[in-house]
Each structure stands twice: as structure tokens, then as C-alpha cells.
Write a structure and sequence with these properties.
By secondary structure, the chain is of the alpha/beta class. The chain contains 7 helices and 5 strands. α1 crosses α4. It starts with 26 loop residues before the first strand and ends in a 7-residue tail after the last helix.
């Protein structure tokens, strides 16, 4: 069954992203953004695309520039059968952990869909079942399936928008440029200014954060 953890899918890389993992059930792709950040929430998105959706540019959000991501966001929102975006804040990340918070954000995004998915594609190697819906974890799925790539675009752009909004309150951390990621500049500014209400206290050092990984199923 696809919802058994040991059945993580390691599909071969192809030049063209696939529209479906299976063709029997209504399928939603999920991805998150901000898992490796030192500040701010983790965002997740869920997207159900029509079977005839095509786009030559859509890919893993990390492979695209900012202009491409925002252009694709508008296209995805206009073309998708259903889409949802959700977040889990830094306080909940500290209370639980980044793995649980990332999956929680995915569940919240799935709940926002106006159409109930019957199958879920997850980017990565770990997921907790959403309701009773079967799922498949796809390693590097955002570069293999259009629905996951679309979810990665929405999660990334909505998180970037959020970090820009709180940058106005705390401009001393330059979140308008680093978006809370552990860049050298961000780390230096944290050393100078200390932590604020949006920093993740459980990520006490960059070296510790770098070791946080999704465990294998």
C-alpha cells in the first residue's frame, strides 16, 4: 500500500515532469518551505491539477528565480482544480519539532482544499497519514511531479511574503534578503542583535540545524 512508510518512491529523474503518479484517484501534491530556516514559520501547500495541465517552466521552486516563481504562482492559482496554503509558526516548531510541524502544515494545507483528495503525493521521505487517504513519499518529488512542483511554488512564495511582512517589524535581521535562512549575514545579525520573537529557539546553532533531517521510514 502507498501509505506504508517503507514504500518510499525513488523514481528516476526525467526531463519532463509527470502529471500523475496514478490515474485512479483524485491526486494532490504537497510540499513545504522553510524547514531549514532559523526564523519564521514553516509553510506548506497542497495542489490538485487538471489532467491536461502543462507547463515547460514549472519545476522545483529552488531551481527557479523569484520572477518565475511569482509568475507561476498566479498561473497555478488560476489553473488548479484546488489549492491550499497553510503555516505552522516558530513557537509550535519549538514545542514539537520541525518534522512534526512540517507535516502538520501539510495536513492544514490539505484541509483547505475545496475538493477532497483521494491520493496524496508528498515531497520527501516521511509523512503521517492524512485522515484515511493513501499517499506516496517521493524523493525529490518537486522535480518529478507537476503537482508537487506547484505546491513548492506556492509554499515558497507565500512564506517569502510572510517574511517580508515581518521584516518591517525587525529590519535588523535583513529578512527581506535572507528570508530567515541560515545565511552568513543572518547568522552575524543574530549574533549582534540576539534573537527575537520569530526565531526558533530549538535551533540553537547553525551546526545543530544542519543536522536536522527527516528520518528514513
Amino acid at each position: 500500500m502507498a501509505n506504508k512508510p517503507q514504500n518510499i518512491c525513488k523514481l528516476k529523474k526525467t526531463d519532463k515532469l509527470q502529471i500523475r503518479y496514478q490515474h485512479q484517484f483524485i491526486e494532490a501534491g504537497c510540499d513545504e518551505a522553510g524547514r531549514g530556516c532559523l526564523a519564521g514559520p514553516v509553510f506548506a501547500a497542497a495542489v490538485i491539477l487538471p489532467d491536461d495541465f502543462e507547463n515547460e517552466v514549472l519545476n522545483d521552486s529552488k531551481k527557479l528565480n523569484e520572477k518565475q516563481r511569482y509568475e507561476l504562482r498566479q498561473l497555478i492559482e488560476n489553473s488548479a482544480i484546488a489549492w491550499g496554503v497553510a503555516m505552522v509558526d516558530n513557537k509550535e516548531i519549538d514545542r514539537t519539532n520541525i518534522l512534526k510541524s512540517s507535516i502538520r502544515a501539510m495536513h492544514l494545507a490539505l484541509e483547505k482544499l475545496t475538493m477532497q483528495p483521494e491520493f496524496v503525493l508528498i515531497d520527501g521521505n516521511r509523512f503521517f497519514r492524512y485522515r484515511q487517504v493513501p499517499y506516496a513519499c517521493i524523493i525529490k518529488g518537486d522535480s518529478k511531479f507537476l503537482s508537487i512542483a506547484a505546491a513548492s511554488i506556492l509554499a515558497k512564495t507565500y512564506r517569502d511574503d510572510y517574511m517580508l511582512s515581518i521584516h518591517d517589524k525587525y529590519p535588523q535581521y535583513a529578512w527581506n534578503k535572507n528570508k530567515g535562512y541560515p545565511t552568513k549575514t543572518h547568522r552575524n545579525l543574530m549574533e549582534i542583535n540576539g534573537l527575537c520573537e520569530f526565531h526558533r529557539r530549538s535551533f540553537k546553532s547553525v551546526s545543530k540545524q544542519a543536522k536536522i533531517q527527516f528520518p528514513e521510514c
